[in-house]
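Lecture notes, unit on protein representations.

Consider one protein chain, 324 amino acids long.
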Amino acid sequence: MGNYNYKRNKKHGKPKPRTETYNPPYDAGVLAMSIEGLNLSPHTLTALKNARLLTIKDLVVRTSSDMYKIQNFGKKNLIEVQSKLSILGVDFKPAPNSPKPEVNESTAPQPTPSKNQQKNEKGKNPQPQNTTKDKTQKQEGHGKQKKETPEDKNQPKPEKGKEHKAQQKQTKDNSYDSKRLFPKGPFVPTPPIPEKKDSFIKFQRAGKWGFKDEKGKEVIPPIYDEVFAFKDNYACVEKNGLFGYISRTNELVIPYKYTCASSFSYGLACVSFEDKCGYIDVEDNVIIPFIYDAGTAFDEDGTARAKKEGRWGILSKDGAFSFI
């Protein structure tokens, strides 16, 4: 059975897997958003896709500890994903041992007594009734109707249900509203960007990665701990915890020396060295210095997103940077 928990089906005797019962308390539009819209680094994005985590809901139904079970997903990747989720106002599933919110007893709903309890309470504490006074009042009011004065006619009559609606408006609304998260307008999920398929397709064998062509023929043997898709005829590969780049002939063109790296995009690649990010070209020349905490791939407009001093900003290829 492995490490999976099963419930035994008594009729057929077949194991039945337990289903996920956690419902994230977030807006459906946010949960349906593709992870492509988070602008994650290529390494993190590839690890999530390989684990078939394609939407925001696929992330938030898991605890942060569950994310470490993903292959090639470490602490840096977790911090990056958490920072992106926090921008949307969502988070991972709370751990089972997390403290529960305190309940105010004065505002907590009280159980409604049953009919038997109501009868017992009436029998224990009967309320004294002044029957003589009630009879006198009934006799005096019998057959008499209160005459409507001109002042009463001028008074506006209360509309039915209006007072009840006013009380409902005064009640604090604790329901989830996407306008609180996105006050500038309704949230529109970012459509997934279709990826261009390369002629070299990554494959795995015995825990190692390599490449095959479109016909399934092996062109680069599976000798790497991780590989990324070819971009600009170079592929980012990992070996012994460090990253470098190979050509389509499996020649190491940039040595293994970076602690994290991504594929080339429009001539530049984001790499990490000594806990800082920078950008290099295909000849391993440092184009943008290692002064950023995180960075994304460059777009066709010649800009990328970079994080510095705890804030994200817009980065251009000439090194100009401005906070968002």
